[in-house]
């Protein structure tokens, strides 16, 4: 965990830093927002930012978004300043921590940020095999291609490999190749010099340089443009990067992990992925099994998500009843672990009894209301009657929005269920927004 503190936290910076360090965080301090942006641009990344409420938090959040730094911001202020706390949250801060700092509160915030990267939960033989291979290959510096359907936990296993590697003391930097527009991805990966293009207001260190001494994860590598694939191949061969607008290459010492939810051999055959890059990345191949092929993991994963979201929402941690577990294990889970997580998040909000019962679990295709009562047959029309007289565009629009709502706004999960690429989904949603339609927002920290 890398914590960046902006300002002196009303004279409490020493206490806050000491608490964070005692919980394993690496702490850096800058005087103001300009200093924070310069630190981030130079490649000294952060996983969390703490800032005084008297600073311009809205400006910070805007700058972070503009320059594609996906870092949560926590505001800090004196306990009596309630108005400042409300303003900070409205300006984009994720949380507000009162000062003087409380050790348990800061520890809880740090734990919440790091939780997703620290655990691999499984009980099935299929996952045990994948974990066994990960343990075997982790100590090497070999490139690894991690494949599997969306939502199977490819990024989780990548972080597990990094944590078990000799590079675990360095950073693991993740780049989602599908989530960043093509015209920005090159700068994101390799960096740029000031004035290299319109909007390049300062030198920006790319993700390869930021990962120097550690690991870089190229998530959904199959979505990368062919032109950029050629430049990436050179980086992997020479272990050096050329910043956009730069005049000399920069050496990097990195291990490369990559993920894809596509059959890369097929993409090579159809010409959308370079064969030489495929062989360079695919030194070791690790396949993540679909959740339907590892049903023994459903119970421990469901219980983990129930506990996680119950605590997050201040609700009692209810036991998963036998009938509810049977419903979960019989479902096909087209969205895999990510869909299970979303389902359990909904479930803890709908559950009312002592235990979680089947009627609190809403799955794709369920003809139930939120109370669990079957819908009246008179409300269900034959599909032909529902569709006749409508245009293909209107049906497609409804399907996409309904699926996105089902996935709680998660773009990657929705694209997987719809059978389209995330890039196609993003273009559709942009079109709907321009037409004035309300599009579900993605959950915090996801695409």
Can you walk me through this structure?
This protein has 447 residues and is an alpha/beta fold. The protein has helices at residues 13-22, 33-41, 57-66, 82-90, 103-114, 125-137, 154-164, 182-190, 207-210, 226-238, 264-269, 275-281, 298-312, 322-330, 336-350, 383-387, 392-406, 411-418, 422-434, and strands at 2-6, 26-30, 48-52, 73-78, 95-99, 144-147, 172-176, 191-192, 204-205, 215-219, 240-241, 250-251, 255-260, 284-287, 319-320, 355-356. The strands form five sheets. A five-stranded parallel beta sheet has the order 2-1-3-4-5, sandwiched between helices.
- Low confidence ranges: 367-385
Q: Which range best describes the helical content: under 10%, 10-25%, 25-40%, 40-55%, 55-70% or over 70%?
A: 40-55%
Task: Determine the strand fraction and express it as a percent band.
Answer: 5-15%
> Any idea what the shape is?
globular
Helical stretch count? 19
The Rg value, from CA coordinates, equals 23 Å
Largest sheet: 5 strands, parallel
Number of strands: 16
Structural class of the helices, strands and pairings? alpha/beta
- In what order do the strands lie side by side in the largest sheet? 2-1-3-4-5
User: How many angstroms does the end-to-end distance come to?
Assistant: 22 Å
The average pLDDT score comes to 85
Which features does this protein show?
447 residues; 16 strands
Nutshell version of this structure?
The chain is α/β, with parallel strands linked by helices and 447 residues long.
Helix and strand topology:
Layout: E1 2-6, H1 13-22, E2 26-30, H2 33-41, E3 48-52, H3 57-66, E4 73-78, H4 82-90, E5 95-99, H5 103-114, H6 125-137, E6 144-147, H7 154-164, E7 172-176, H8 182-190, E8 191-192, E9 204-205, H9 207-210, E10 215-219, H10 226-238, E11 240-241, E12 250-251, E13 255-260, H11 264-269, H12 275-281, E14 284-287, H13 298-312, E15 319-320, H14 322-330, H15 336-350, E16 355-356, H16 383-387, H17 392-406, H18 411-418, H19 422-434
Parallel strand pairs: 1-2, 1-3, 3-4, 4-5, 6-13, 6-14, 7-10, 10-13, 15-16
Antiparallel strand pairs: 8-9, 11-12
Helix pairs in contact: 6-7, 13-15, 17-18, 18-19
